[in-house]
Amino acid sequence: MFLSKTDFKKIFTFSLVGVSALYFSQKKITSEQANEDNLKKHIYYLASDELQGRLTGSEGETKAANYLSAEFKKLGLKPYEGKSFIQGFEYNVKLNPHDDKTSTTVKGKNVVAVLNNKAEKTIVIGAHYDHLGLNEHHNSTLANSDGQIHNGADDNASGTAAVLELARMFSQNKTKENVNYVFALFSGEEDGLMGSKKLAETIKTNYPNTIFMINMDMVGRLNSNKDLTIGGVGTSPILSDLVKKYKPEGINLGLDESGVGPSDHTSFYLKDIPVLFLFTGTHNDYHKPTDDSDKINYPGQKIITNYVFNLANALGHEKEIPFTKTKVAPTKAVPKYKVSLGIMPNYADSKDGMGIDGVIDNRPAANAGILQGDTLTRIGKCEVKEVYSYMDCLAKINAGEEHPVTVKRNGEEKVFNVKF
Ligand SMILES: [Zn+2]
């Protein structure tokens, strides 16, 4: 999952519509089932310390890419381009987040395979496999975490494992589909959807009739309420009925219309391809070294993988999937900041303040005496309930102003004068 500091997820969470108990699960005709052991094996390897957090351009990324290529080869799939499953791409990344001048070129590797059923239509099923490495590119939400391995089990070994398993299911499926499948494992996602941009630029040249893209990013943490968010349902008029029709029993769907979101489906939506995006939600380990394999809900991930199998099957049988542009309502716009507090917010849901996961040295919060572990409740008169109201409060402040900032520390209220 890619979140700029001006949090995409605000747009996202605020546009969810619950559609839980209204629909009964349908009978499905499938010959293949996802295998939990396969999912587990892939995730444990990809999120192991050996791969050092799979940073784009790193040795760990190469190891992951080799593993993924070998899996595709075992299934008898064909490379997307040329003789290798690797599709290379390049971009620049800042070495120091506070300095625009020093940047370095990163060489990334998508791993892309095709199940060519000699069909007219093609569906892309994708997930990103890169993650934050040792925080070399400064995308961690934990302060002072440079040098710690960010294993990225949920983000996004989970989606990667699901794509590998779907590749197995479709290539071993007895019923031949009348659609080709492109299984796309992207790199460069955490630095801004770089790999998927590259594939989206080439997909219609190689497969002119690409009718759909399904993306999975963070599908490993299905909670006890079984909440699953699906984005992109507004990108075609057929989608909201379709996702409800095939919804697994007990799953609570939260639907989001937008084709633009915090992950790789955005790259395809921007090429006028209808998309779906599956996501089990954010959590305390998001973009931290603690996003580990033992915290994954494997039975939950199996349910989601089977769901995507059924959806992809159904989409292949649709006569037509008209593309529609979705709009982001002006009220959902991300606020613009002129100032920053210099803290790492906790993204977890809350009503009584936002946790502070980290405090950056020599920035306003640290200078005023605010500490990691404090809970932020108020900036000036503006009440902070969680990360979203925090962003709203921050957007009202101008550089140079001074405001009292209230935090809870060990149950006690403390007020600090912060100079922004
Ligand atoms: Zn991420």
From TrEMBL:
Domain spans labelled Peptidase M28: 110-309
GO biological process entries: proteolysis
Coiled coil: none
GO MF terms held by the record: metalloexopeptidase activity
Residue stretches making up the PDZ domain: 350-419
UniProt-recorded name of the protein: PDZ domain-containing protein
